[in-house]
Specification:
It is built from 6 helices and 19 strands. By secondary structure, it is of the alpha/beta class.
Length: about 350
C-alpha cells in the first residue's frame, strides 16, 4: 500500500472503462485503471466493427480498444494490467474506498465499476474455435456479414426473437433452434418472429457441435432432437447464440445494489450506485443495448458524475482501519452526496 489516495479508480476496461479514463484524465484526475489481464472487454474477442461512429471503413475490435486505451493514456490515465480481487466500499460520503489486487491495496475517493458482462456460452465443441468465423453473440453487430446466407439463432427468450427479427433483414434464412416447444419469449415477440417469411423454428432441438467448412469458417452444426435423441447436420454460414449474458459483478455483489440477474443498479439517469462515490457504467449495468457506443456513453457519464462528486463532496479524514462492508443490499437505497 502507498500513502497515495487516488481521485478515481476504474475497475475494468472496454469502451466504458477506457472512456471513463479518458474523460477523467482530461479533467486532470489522473485515474488509475485496473484493467484486468484480458483488457479491452468483449471487443477484444470481436473481429470487424462496422457500426461504431467515426470508423467508416470499419475497424478490428482489438485495434479499436488499443486506440481507446492509448487516447486515455495520452491525457494521463494510468493502467494496472492485473485483476482486482476485492473491494471495500465505504458508506460515508467523502470517504475512501479500497480496491485490492491480491494483497496490494489501492485507495480512492471515487470508484467506477466497468467490469462488463460475458456472453453466456453453449459450451460445445467448435464454439470457441469458430468465434468470429461464423459463431457470434450479437446480431446487431454482425448480421450484415451474413447477407443472403443461411443462419441460426440459439435461444428461446425475447432476446433471441429480437436477434432473429434483426437478422432476418439480411440473411436468406433464419432458423431459431430451441430445446423446448415452449418459449420464454413474450407472445408479441414470438408472433413478430413467426410472421416473417424467412424465419423458421426448429424444436425441440439443441446444438451439440459447430463444424468448420472447407474454408475454415462455420459450415454446419450438429443438432439433436431432445425427445428422440436423433442427430442431424444443419448447414449454415452463421450461428448467433442468444441465451443471455452474465454481468461480472460478483466482486461487488454484497456491497452495491444489483437486480435479480446481477446487473448493478444506478440512480435514475445517473451512474451513481447506492454507495457514495461509487459509479457504474457499461455492460455491468446495461442488459438492454449492450453496444460499444452505449457503453462508451455511460463511461463518459460515470467520469462526469465522479468529477462532480469530487467537486461537491467534502473529504472525510482517512481512518486507520476500514470499517466492515455493509451487508447485502435488499433494495435500492441511494446515498447521494450532501443528502
Amino acid at each position: 500500500m502507498t500513502d497515495r489516495i487516488e481521485n478515481m479508480i476504474i475497475v475494468g476496461s472496454g469502451p466504458a472503462g477506457y472512456t471513463a479514463a479518458l474523460y477523467a484524465a482530461r479533467a486532470n484526475l489522473e485515474p488509475l485503471v485496473i484493467e484486468g489481464f484480458l483488457w479491452g472487454g468483449l471487443l477484444q474477442q470481436t473481429t470487424d466493427v462496422e457500426n461504431y461512429p467515426g470508423y467508416p471503413d470499419g475497424v478490428m475490435g482489438p485495434e479499436m480498444m488499443q486506440q481507446f486505451r492509448g487516447q486515455a493514456e495520452r491525457f494521463g490515465a494510468r493502467f494496472l494490467t492485473d485483476q482486482a480481487t476485492r473491494l471495500e466500499l465505504t458508506n460515508e460520503p467523502g470517504g475512501v474506498h479500497r480496491v485490492y489486487v491480491g494483497d496490494e491495496e489501492h485507495r480512492a475517493r471515487t470508484v467506477v465499476l466497468a467490469m462488463g458482462a460475458e456472453h453466456r456460452k453453449l459450451g460445445i465443441p467448435g464454439e470457441d474455435e469458430l468465434g468470429g468465423r461464423g459463431v457470434s453473440y450479437c446480431a446487431t453487430c454482425d448480421a450484415a456479414f451474413f447477407k443472403d446466407r443461411e443462419t441460426i439463432i440459439v435461444g428461446g427468450g425475447d432476446s433471441a426473437m429480437e436477434e432473429a427479427i434483426f437478422l432476418a433483414k439480411f440473411a436468406s434464412k433464419v432458423t431459431i433452434v430451441h430445446r423446448r416447444d415452449e418459449f420464454r419469449a413474450s407472445k408479441i415477440m414470438l408472433d413478430r418472429a413467426r410472421d416473417l417469411d424467412n424465419v423458421e423454428f426448429l424444436t425441440p432441438y439443441v446444438v451439440d457441435e459447430f463444424v468448420a467448412g472447407e474454408d475454415g469458417a462455420l459450415g454446419h452444426a450438429v443438432v439433436r432432437n431432445t425427445e428422440s435423441e436423433e442427430s442431424r447436420e444443419l448447414p449454415m454460414a452463421g450461428a448467433f447464440i442468444a441465451i443471455g449474458h452474465d454481468p461480472q459483478s460478483e466482486i461487488v455483489a454484497e456491497q452495491v445494489a444489483t437486480d435479480g440477474e446481477g446487473y448493478v443498479l444506478t440512480d435514475g439517469k445517473s451512474t451513481l450506485t447506492n454507495r457514495p462515490g461509487v459509479f457504474a457504467a457499461g455492460d455491468v449495468v446495461d442488459h438492454t443495448y449492450r453496444q460499444a457506443v452505449t457503453a462508451a456513453g455511460t463511461g463518459c457519464q460515470a467520469a462526469l458524475d465522479a468529477e462532480w462528486y469530487l467537486r461537491d463532496t467534502p473529504e472525510v479524514p482517512v481512518p486507520e482501519a476500514m470499517p466492515a462492508a455493509s451487508p447485502p443490499v435488499a433494495q435500492w437505497a441511494p446515498s447521494k452526496p450532501g443528502s
